[in-house]
Design a protein that fits this description.
Uridine Diphospho-n-acetylenolpyruvylglucosamine Reductase, domain 2, Uridine Diphospho-n-acetylenolpyruvylglucosamine Reductase, domain 3, Vanillyl-alcohol Oxidase, Chain A, domain 3, about 475 residues, alpha+beta, 8-stranded antiparallel beta sheet, homodimer
Chain lengths: ~475, ~475
């Protein structure tokens, strides 16, 4: 089934107006369209009709005013690292590329916050912070734009300690459907002054407004940071170590599970020589004494559950190498099957159910023919499968869909979520009614209708059709 | 100026229907109405036309269906501890008292969460958790209901470490204007599955829906907890100690400032013998070693800035006595002027501006005749004035309004907020356009209109009139 919808050609008057406004930064060139009509997912590309390279909030506002007058869809685009088809132009329309909005507007060292444009990436921000003693902790692996990370409510390896984009965005500048500009939140650490507009836009995937600027919370770089790797006899022992660590309230900064197949892929890709067994990657942040104490507590738990000795990486370069290997796991897995695309799953369950969720998933994995790697941010109860498929092979796609369905159904039965951090896009929309109930999704539709009555903003994403919003 | 609006008598058909549904739990008795038409603030009481004592989500839903059919206002009520007139029946209507919804539905020890009905108070929850090794950290002082705390986005002394209700509510059950029941969020630690409905209702003060059940995040009780008091030669030295502590990233659990007048009131009320000087109250949570380390770091900072020696309270009873004295500060201050009411302010500013904000506020205090105590959750940049007034004395009320205006204007000029934790109610509504800009408040109006088109839910709260939503 194709998700592409019938589309009208762009009105000539709109084309003329956009050419006048944006000159060469308005493009209908084939390669530009192709580059903006796909993301990192298995979803088939769907090209926009034009791309605008915006350089300021006012330009995005002008684009929205023009597009809204013609009821033409607008899709925000950062670096295209999304994995659920968020940027695909299902209904055609205009892609607004924000990657040129790369200004770091302000760093307030004394208040531990920074104001950045939406196209700034997390690595760019952290490079700019290098001499400040501060860092921005959210790390989804890819060097995504901060606007995109806010729009998908991203998280990643550090979330177990520092939270997700939800907790780390203090305020936003957002362009609404009609081109008006709204500033949400502020620089105070907390506020009870009215509805939480900031959180309304975080995770809204460009369907309620276009985020053009963010005020982000920063963290002091800890006095000490130390990383370690520990292999386990089986996945269950590794997961039980995670569960106990979380239940004891040990403030680990990162605690990541990689299964044996992922380790094999990582070794091949990153030239590492790690044991090809279920493995936990840890990181500890704090004072020197606190890091030592946390590490000792976790080692005690791991040892009791059969974990091998910890291999430590304390020097910055070693730590970086280790986390680079972890971050490259997704691409390393892709190389297990040359030419394959990854069909990613992203469930998150209450921590008490994690061992059971992963054990049952492994039973499912044993029943299919395609290679599937399992890894994830297990401290939050969040794990991914990288299901390697040839999208042209219907048997493989059927297997991938079957296992995705199984994993999601199981997570929902455990009061978990179909997506911990990737977002909904087009890939997860059909699970939302089961996850939240029809009344909640009808309420989300009411919000969408109130903010974007013409459905110009990234139409067809997140929300299942209103006629599907019934409890079965 | 009175805020009371013209009101229509309750339709007879509605009265009959509610009597049938709720029997004796539907009341129009004078004392019941009087009790439900006021809160802890200076705002003059405004009585509802009837009170319904609800005992379940389904009962609240039935009440909303009936009231909505007659377009009659409904105001949610917990224990009436709000301080901005949140529960006043400006337009009359029905007060729904949720204090009978006191069931602790579930405590999930292994997942560090609990499900409670909206009428459960924070002390009730913590008493029920006594043997679990867990606690619920949000502590606004008053023994408020958890539903009310979510509705006002409350926080308090522990927020500097554990966050506010925004970070500690995982999910909600909410009755919408038309009586439909929505469940938001879930029990996974994080999710990117659609719009953040949970955060939409947290802080909405009963104007978008009525919270009837909450899933709350719990924390493991720390291995060690230790509290201390330290007096300073002046307020500025105390505030600078706070700023450095936060900027160094020391994870204090509580850090509270009380000025000399507050200390005098506390000593009189709580029979303590603390120095009547600007004072910080601290609490440290963690392992024994971590607590010692944090305490040492903070003592070093304090000493350098002229802080006296720390007086320690390590035993549980001593700690409790100390925090009881802190919590009673509000009532202690009221007794400074018998018969007075408190006109509370609640600004929150970026931490770098806190010293300046407090110094300028003290200059304002020196210019008025009424007694004013200053204390607050300074680790978040949040502080209160307790302005003691006789509401019948126009000179005193004018002074109180003048100082409130000054304090809020200054906070807004510093990119802070007019209310850090009390909420807007009727008291702060007129500051919202200045704080957020007209576009943001118009967007809040659009949300209100979408969710409550008849304006039945706590009408007249939070939002200034739409005609005032213009940038000056």
């Amino acid at each position: 089934m194709s998700l592409a919808q019938p589309r009208k050609p762009l009105p000539e008057a709109l084309i003329t107006a956009l050419q006048e406004c944006f000159g060469k930064r308005f493009s209908r060139g084939e390669s530009v369209l192709a580059q903006h009509g796909r993301d990192e997912s298995v979803h088939a590309p769907m090209l926009p009709d034009a791309v605008v390279f915006a350089e300021s909030t006012e330009e995005v506002a002008e684009l929205m005013r023009l597009s809204y007058a013609h009821a033409v869809p607008v899709i925000a685009y950062g670096v295209g690292s999304s994995v659920e088809g968020h940027v695909l132009a299902i209904h055609g329309g205009i892609c607004v590329d924000l990657s040129g909005m790369k200004r770091i507007v302000a760093v307030h060292n004394d208040d531990l916050d920074a104001v950045v444009e939406a196209g700034v990436t997390r690595l760019q921000l952290n490079a700019a912070l290098r001499d400040s003693g501060l860092f921005f902790p959210i790390d989804p692996g890819a060097d995504a734009t901060l606007g995109g990370m806010a729009a998908t409510r991203a998280s990643g390896t550090n979330a177990v300690r520092y939270g997700t984009m939800r907790e780390n965005v203090l305020g936003l500048t957002v362009v609404l459907a009609d081109g008006s500009i709204v500033r949400t939140g502020g620089r105070a650490r907390k506020s009870s002054a009215g509805y939480d507009l900031t959180r309304l836009f975080v995770g809204s995937e460009g369907t309620l407004g276009i985020i053009t600027e963010l005020t982000l919370r920063l963290q002091p770089i800890p006095e000490a940071m130390s990383a370690a790797v520990c292999a386990f006899p089986d996945v269950d022992a590794a997961v039980r170590t995670v569960i106990q660590t979380i239940q004891f309230g040990i403030p680990v900064a990162r605690i990541e599970l990689l299964d044996a197949l992922t380790l094999a892929a990582v070794n091949r890709h990153s030239k590492t020589t790690l044991a090809e067994a279920p493995t936990l990657f840890f990181e500890f942040h704090g004072s020197a004494a606190a890091v030592e104490e946390q590490a000792q507590l976790v080692q005690d738990i791991a040892r009791e559950l059969g974990g091998e000795d910890f291999a430590w990486a304390t020097r910055n370069e070693e730590r970086s190498r280790l986390w680079k290997a972890r971050h490259d796991a997704y691409f390393a897995c892709l190389q297990l099957k040359p030419g394959a695309r990854a069909f990613p799953t992203d469930v998150c369950v209450p921590i008490s159910r994690l061992a059971e969720a992963i054990a049952s998933t492994n039973e499912d994995i044993a029943r299919v023919s395609i290679p599937i790697a399992l890894f994830g941010h297990v401290g939050d109860g969040n794990f991914h499968l990288v299901v390697l498929v040839d999208p042209a092979n219907p048997t493989e796609m059927a297997e991938a869909k079957w296992i995705n369905e199984r994993v999601v159904e199981r997570a929902l039965a455990m009061e978990g979520t179909c997506t911990g951090e990737h977002g909904v896009g087009i890939g997860k929309a059909r699970f939302l009614v089961r996850e939240h109930g029809a009344a909640a999704i009808r309420l989300m539709h009411a919000l969408k209708d109130a903010l974007d009555p013409q459905h110009c903003l990234n139409p067809g994403k997140i929300l299942p059709p209103i006629e599907d919003c019934t409890d079965s």
